């Protein structure tokens, strides 16, 4: 079975090939209900059509951007007349039609833009202040006139459509036809109403199956809809009512002032207000990979594009479906998501079992028919056929079809969807947003997590605790004492370096409280600056910002060029201490004078940096340089002014404390116990990284800490030796992270999860088996390339995702074990009985009920079990292990043998053993067989909760879904036997027979316990099958 599955039903978790997707589709055979079975499977034809449509729209946009722009320059602006304003727009108080406003940006029409008065003119026409932004009281009016920032989505399918889908089951349709014929023939032969009971029973049972199935599918679809909406929700920074605040992308309106920085997605069409070195990647919209520089001459920004570099502010001019991105988004969701490896594998299992089931169904029908013909032949009635004989043949056919219903495990692939939907919803509550379904599964196989340090292992609440300035190291305790120990000259330049070289903003909220909006490092520095000077504007009011180079993870520094009040130019630079120190050749002394830096002073500063780092402090170096004015290279034209890269003067080194998050050490230990190696990959100083790694339990005595530049120089042969031992990589670039992930995956065959937050992390996130983007610190580009978004940026949440990943896999294995046992027993019982006695003990209605127990209800009970701590004491699930393990086969075969023995004894010797006499003894016996069979499945469901442990009841009462399913199954079984006998071909049982049925079912529990003592051979594949105890030292963490 496994070789067949690997050959035909194997797909990659990420970016599977079109060939692999087509291959398994062609291998699937005997699908009872394609509409339901493939509801969560990508529609390749629809996807291809959507891709074609998307390319057409992209080509149209590209022509509009690159061809139309040139043509529009020849249109005389004087010939343009303003469109007459509609009454609705006039009443709202605006002076431009929404369509005209949207057209300006969409077409990049500078003539029309100038005709409307440029940026200031448009701001006047849409009644917005470029300084204070939109008034909150105007939001609803603007949404009414200019529209909502939402895209047209397919409406949620109503419940009746899921009922209709469930009714498309080929076998159920055949059974319904049989039932209708049975009603007609029955009434003709047995009269009204007795003749209709058998057929009506089948119809009612089919309707029950359909409704339960449809409700389950409908609830799943609602969960996926909510998650899909959450995936598209982006938090935007805007200026409203004069203050800067965060709003959802769905709440954005025309007139909003939006703040953009590296990695952001442009949330709507708009006009550039101001900014520095703003570069936009328009490839998602136009297909063109060349980045576009945005400035006041080229001010048009399009929704859906990404900020590649720089920062800026924009005025929103059109939202939602009035943007080109809105039209493009409609095509992006067409065709659905790729199916997961488990879904594909279980389609293969369903196909194999379906073939076996079909063979048994045909054999059962042939045996029953042959016995009927043989009986007629023996009694010389071969040519005499009555309505009763026709009814018997119809009944045989119904039994054969019902065997097919039970035999084809349609619920197997759908159980994966159910389990994933449940896991995704729970993970959302645990602050993890799963963007791709397959990530949930793959995370259960993760053998390595490459994690960032800042914000993931640490709290990201940074505070400056140490300061080196003018040759002296100081503790940040008393503000007055600190202020008195620094000379006025030094303090002035230090505060300029803090307040001028920043991309954060100090704002006051509605209550007048001061807030800092920006990265945690920037916030810590500004809070430090505010200790000395409450009036932030004092440093900035007489200074003009000439040029800004925002921080990026490659250069590891941020620079700014400013024109001071005296007309001189001054450059400020801050960033990774050793990098900034290498750019400096001078130092500011305690009197505020600039002197040449000696080798001794350089060594002293390096020692200070290392000293701070060894205390687990993040070190930032601040420097400045005065430029000559009037020179060709240093004039005040921002377009030609380059910020210098050398000959700076060191001002200060600050040590920033970023404490380790509570619970991280325990989470790291949990990973180590679970066979998951944790590696820290950070841009920080190696000493800081090592100190934090030791505190977290990541860096052990035999582990290796390495710097990015050293790692880059290693050959592949050297990497094979050192990569398994690397636990910390410091001063790394995003390319180093990408190289490490690629090497771990391709050379060492590891299943790698990697965290990332910056735009440059996108390649590593995309390359990894599981990309984990940070929800708070992460850019939109990082999130878009990730499989899971960690909403609280916490390492503990990553471990929760790993637990759920393992839980999904194990839960599906439990369900498969349970369902295969029911399949084997139901098939063999009916087949053997048909061959020996000429009748099937389980009727069509009873088999439909059994099908519902093992399909929809079984999936609900076992596929939604929450994870337990034991899951993280096992090794990861290997890449190439058999899905149906030897442990599972042992349990399936053992339970099947027990159940077949019990049912066989009842079938052939039941009347004598149970002392059944009288005319209804056969009906009582058949009811007893049915009842015992159902209770065997109920107790086997409990047995399936743990495939290895003897105590299967542990945590059972914590799983409320499991308990509800158990109670419902038993209750409905009592109703079927005691009250619905007319339809289900059952008769009420005495108390002693009920007790006997329950006890025979309950014996499954000790049988299961005995089976678990039978040793099975461990998996010989690479990795392991997930069941051996993990050989790990308790103190490794």
UniProtKB/TrEMBL annotation:
Domain of life per record: Eukaryota
Root EC class: translocase
This protein's UniProt keywords: ATP-binding, Calcium, Calcium transport, Calmodulin-binding, Ion transport, Magnesium, Membrane, Metal-binding, Nucleotide-binding, Translocase, Transmembrane, Transmembrane helix, Transport
Any coiled-coil regions, as ranges: none
PROSITE patterns reported for this sequence: ATPASE_E1_E2 (PS00154)
Annotated Cation-transporting P-type ATPase N-terminal domain residues: 115-187
Subcellular location: Membrane
CDD domains recorded: P-type_ATPase_Ca_PMCA-like
EC number: 7.2.2.10
Protein purpose: Catalyzes the hydrolysis of ATP coupled with the transport of calcium.
Family, per entry: Belongs to the cation transport ATPase (P-type) (TC 3.A.3) family. Type IIB subfamily.
Protein name: Calcium-transporting ATPase
Organism: Helianthus annuus
Taxonomic lineage: Eukaryota, Viridiplantae, Streptophyta, Embryophyta, Tracheophyta
Gene name tied to this protein: ACA11
């Amino acid at each position: 079975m496994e070789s067949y599955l690997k050959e035909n039903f194997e797909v990659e978790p990420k970016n599977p090939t079109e060939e692999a997707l087509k291959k398994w589709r062609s291998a699937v055979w005997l699908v009872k209900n394609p509409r339901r079975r493939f509801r969560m499977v990508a529609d390749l034809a629809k996807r291809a059509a959507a891709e074609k449509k998307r390319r057409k729209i992209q080509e149209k946009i590209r022509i509009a951007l690159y061809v139309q722009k040139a043509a529009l320059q020849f249109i005389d602006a004087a010939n343009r007349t303003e469109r007459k304003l509609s009454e609705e727009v006039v009443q709202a108080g605006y002076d431009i039609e929404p369509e005209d406003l949207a057209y300006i940006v969409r077409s990049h029409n500078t003539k029309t833009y100038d005709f409307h008065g440029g940026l200031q003119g448009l701001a006047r026409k849409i009644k917005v202040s470029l300084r204070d932004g939109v008034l909150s009281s105007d939001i609803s009016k603007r949404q009414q006139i200019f529209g909502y920032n939402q895209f047209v989505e397919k409406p949620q399918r109503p419940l009746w459509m899921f009922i209709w889908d469930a009714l498309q089951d080929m076998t159920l349709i055949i059974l319904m036809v049989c039932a209708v014929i049975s009603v007609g023939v029955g009434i003709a032969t047995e009269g009204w109403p007795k003749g209709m009971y058998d057929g009506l029973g089948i119809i009612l049972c089919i309707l029950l199956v359909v409704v339960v199935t449809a409700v389950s599918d409908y609830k799943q679809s609602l969960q996926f809809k909510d998650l899909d909406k959450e995936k598209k929700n982006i938090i935007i920074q805007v200026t409203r009512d004069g203050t800067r605040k965060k709003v959802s992308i769905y709440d954005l309106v025309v007139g909003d002032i939006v703040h953009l920085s590296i990695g952001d997605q442009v949330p709507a069409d708009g006009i550039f207000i101001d900014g520095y070195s703003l570069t936009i990647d328009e490839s998602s919209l136009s297909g063109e990979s060349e980045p576009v520089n945005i400035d006041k001459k080229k001010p048009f920004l399009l929704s859906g594009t990404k900020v590649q570099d720089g920062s800026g502010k924009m005025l929103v001019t059109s939202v939602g479906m009035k943007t080109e991105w809105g039209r493009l988004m409609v095509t992006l969701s067409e065709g659905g998501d790729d199916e997961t490896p488990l879904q594909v594998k279980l389609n293969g299992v369903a196909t194999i079992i379906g073939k076996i089931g079909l063979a048994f169904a045909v054999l059962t029908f042939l045996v029953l028919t042959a016995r009927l013909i043989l009986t007629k032949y023996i009694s010389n009635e071969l040519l005499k056929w009555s309505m009763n004989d026709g009814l018997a043949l119809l009944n045989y056919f119904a039994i054969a079809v019902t065997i097919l219903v039970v035999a084809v495990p349609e619920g197997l692939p759908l159980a994966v969807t159910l389990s994933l939907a449940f896991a995704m919803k729970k993970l959302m509550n645990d602050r993890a947003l799963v963007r791709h379904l397959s990530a949930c599964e793959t995370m259960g196989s993760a053998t390595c997590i490459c994690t960032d340090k800042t914000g993931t292992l640490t709290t990201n609440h940074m505070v400056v605790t140490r300061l080196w300035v003018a040759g002296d190291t100081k503790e940040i305790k008393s503000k007055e004492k600190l202020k008195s120990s620094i000379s006025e000259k030094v303090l002035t330049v230090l505060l300029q370096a803090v307040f001028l070289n920043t991309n954060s903003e100090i704002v006051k909220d509605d209550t007048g409280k001061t807030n800092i909006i920006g990265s945690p490092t920037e916030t810590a520095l500004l809070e430090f600056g505010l200790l000395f000077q409450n009036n932030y504007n004092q440093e900035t009011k007489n200074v003009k910002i000439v040029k800004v180079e925002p921080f990026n993870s490659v250069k590891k520094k941020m620079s700014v060029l400013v024109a001071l009040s005296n007309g001189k130019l001054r450059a400020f630079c801050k960033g990774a201490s050793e990098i900034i120190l290498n750019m400096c050749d001078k130092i500011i002394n305690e009197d505020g004078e600039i002197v040449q830096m000696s080798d001794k002073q350089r060594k002293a500063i390096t020692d200070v940096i290392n000293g701070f780092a060894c205390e687990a402090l993040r070190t930032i170096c601040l420097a400045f340089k005065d430029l000559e004015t009037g020179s060709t290279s240093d004039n005040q034209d921002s377009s030609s002014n380059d910020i210098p890269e050398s000959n700076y003067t060191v001002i200060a080194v600050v040590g920033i404390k970023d404490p380790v998050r509570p619970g991280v050490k325990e989470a790291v230990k949990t990973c180590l116990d679970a066979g998951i190696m944790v590696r820290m990959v950070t841009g920080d100083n190696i000493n800081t990284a090592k100190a934090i790694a030791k505190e977290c339990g990541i860096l052990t005595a035999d582990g290796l800490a390495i710097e990015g530049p050293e790692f880059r120089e290693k050959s592949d042969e050297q990497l094979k030796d050192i990569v398994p031992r690397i636990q910390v990589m410091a001063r790394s670039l995003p390319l180093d992270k990408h190289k490490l992930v690629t090497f771990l995956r391709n050379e060492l065959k590891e299943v790698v999860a990697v965290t990332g937050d910056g735009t440059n992390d996108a390649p590593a996130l995309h390359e990894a088996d599981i990309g984990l983007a940070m929800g708070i610190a992460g850019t939109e580009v990082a999130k878009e390339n990730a499989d899971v978004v960690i909403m609280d940026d916490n390492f503990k949440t990553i471990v929760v995702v790993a637990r759920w990943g393992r839980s999904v896999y194990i839960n599906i294995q439990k369900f498969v074990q349970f369902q295969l046992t029911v399949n084997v027993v139901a098939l063999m019982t009916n087949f053997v009985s048909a061959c020996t006695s000429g009748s099937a003990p389980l009727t069509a209605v009873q088999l439909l009920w059994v099908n519902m127990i093992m399909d929809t209800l079984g999936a609900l009970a076992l596929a939604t079990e929450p994870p337990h701590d034991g899951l993280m004491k096992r090794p990861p699930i290997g890449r190439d292990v058999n899905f149906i393990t030897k442990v599972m086969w042992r349990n399936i075969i053992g339970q099947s043998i027990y159940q077949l023995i019990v049912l066989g004894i009842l079938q052939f010797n039941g009347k004598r053993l149970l002392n059944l006499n009288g005319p209804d003894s056969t009906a009582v016996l058949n009811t007893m067989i049915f009842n015992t069979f159902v209770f065997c499945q109920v107790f086997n469901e409990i047995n399936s909760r743990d495939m290895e442990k003897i105590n299967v009841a542990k945590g059972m009462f914590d799983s409320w879904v499991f308990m509800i399913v158990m109670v419902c199954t038993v209750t409905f079984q009592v109703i079927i036997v005691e009250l619905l006998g007319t339809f289900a071909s059952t008769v009420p049982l005495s108390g002693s027979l009920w007790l006997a049925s329950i006890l025979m079912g309950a014996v499954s529990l000790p049988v299961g316990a005995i089976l678990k003592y039978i040793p099975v051979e461990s998996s010989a594949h690479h990795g392991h099958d997930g069941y051996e105890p993990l050989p790990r030292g308790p103190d490794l963490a």
